[in-house]
Specification:
0% strand, globular, single chain, mainly alpha, 37 residues
Length: 37
Amino acid sequence: MENCINFPGIPPHRKTPKGKSKGMHMSDIHKEEIKRT
């Protein structure tokens, strides 16, 4: 599992390392959507 995922359309500064959660980040939302698929 990647610690940092950079999705298209999301600036690099939005990347959050696992364990550093500040609410729901865009990357986290995309991660959840991918998990569901």
